[in-house]
Amino acid sequence: MVKRTYYRDRYNCNKVWEVAKLNGGYYFRQYICGSQIGRGLRTTKKFISSLGILDFEIITSFPNNQVNDERSQRNVHKRH
Description:
The chain is an alpha+beta fold. The protein has helices spanning about 45-50, 65-75; strands at about 5-10, 15-20, 25-30, 35-45, 55-60.
């Protein structure tokens, strides 16, 4: 069973980090504005902790609504 946890980057609100717990390790992915960037990285909890990702805010509403809703709200108020 894969346990996925999503963390919002404290320096860039459009960036979300996914940490998936696998047998024998962790899989680490980055999302910007709801789109996955790169292929991901198989790594250890020690490495992820050294980056400070585990100290970020845990979010529960990703991947479906939150990032896309924020972007669509900004586009509503944009002048053309």
